[in-house]
Amino acid sequence: MSITKTIITPATALAALGLVLAPALAQAQGGSATAGSAGSAASGGTSASTVGTGGTSTGANGGTGSSLATGGAAAGGKTMNRSHVNETDQGGLNGQSKAMAHDGGTFSKSQTKTKVRDGESVESRTKTMSHEPGSKPVKSATTTGSTIGQ
């Protein structure tokens, strides 16, 4: 298992903001869809957070463009962060980020999956969970989506 650190720089944050704004600006000529989700979990001295956002647009000439950004971070005890984005055969994008921290039986984890269907739709889902021994796990889930033309 590989352990990596994710550092979000101001330039990365600005680029992610551009991914959200660019499809909205393209809407005047064609159609656009944007969606994103994020979540954090914390328990004891552990915490984990993930985020994913995507956009797709269709111009007046029928051309399409899509973007996706995802990332995560964990702190406390032993940590694991993993993020990747893949292009689909149809020109869409799939991204996933996972972050987890554990210290003995106490742990926090977060996972975000984002799908962009080029020129069609965007969907993002985040699930989080935290647990301390002797108590019930705390879970949450968030799903957002958008389709061009709606």
Radius of gyration equals: 17 Å
Q: Briefly note the structural class of the backbone.
A: mainly beta
Ends apart, CA distance between termini:
42 Å
Helix content: 10-25%
Mean pLDDT: 85
Q: Major beta sheet, specifics?
A: 5 strands, antiparallel
Which residues form runs of ≥5 with pLDDT under 50?
A: 1-15, 23-28
Strand order of the largest sheet: 4-5-6-7-8
Q: Globular, elongated, flat, extended or rod-shaped: what is the shape?
A: elongated
**Tally of separate helices:** 1
Structure summary, number of beta strands: 8
Instruction: List the helices and strands in order.
Output: HEEEEEEEE
What percentage of the residues does DSSP assign to strands (E)?
A: over 45%
Question: How does this model look, in words?
Answer:
- The chain has 150 residues and is mainly beta.
- The chain is 11% helix and 61% strand.
- It has one helix and eight strands, in the order H-E-E-E-E-E-E-E-E.
- Strands 4-5-6-7-8 form a five-stranded antiparallel beta sheet, with no helix packed on it. The protein has a three-stranded antiparallel beta sheet with strand order 1-2-3, covered by helices on one side.
- A hairpin with a 6-residue loop joins strand 7 and strand 8.
- The longest helix has 17 residues.
- The protein starts with 9 loop residues before the first helix and ends with a strand.
